[in-house]
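Supplementary Text 2. Reproducibility record for the structural model of the 150-residue chain.

All settings were left at their defaults, and a single model was retained for analysis rather than an ensemble. We include the record here because the model underlies the residue-level annotations in Supplementary Table 4.
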Amino acid sequence: MSPPLSQILHEWMCVTIRYSMRGFMLYAKQNNYSVPQLNVLFRLRHKGACGVSELADEMGVTAAAASQLLERLVQQGLVQRSEDPLDRRNRRMTLTEAGQQVVQESVAARQSWLDRLPALLSEAEQEQVATALRILIERAETLDEKNEQV
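Retained model, structure tokens:
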């Protein structure tokens, strides 16, 4: 008897996370970035321009710690400061083009193993997996809808 689907999904998730994190950590190490630095870059990409205290709250650190981290990123040319148009006393932090590039490269490094995986599958297996994943994606996207109806 084969294991239940939920167990197989958990196993797949573990494999996905392991390979994803391995690629991400290798990228960080090879490029001399810390995980907190990359975390800030991802948050800025997601949120857009925001203040130091806002980032600090999201990261669960003090404003002083976030400010130090951001200062290093500014010095590296990955983040830039600008005046808040609504309050000139505040500074808004945004990604530079170089910061955007680092985010894109780290995502690519995290996902590179996925590009190598299909070569290990036969054409028939690739079709089976693609069909199954399309179904999973469609059903997963309805989870929020079902939770809202309850």
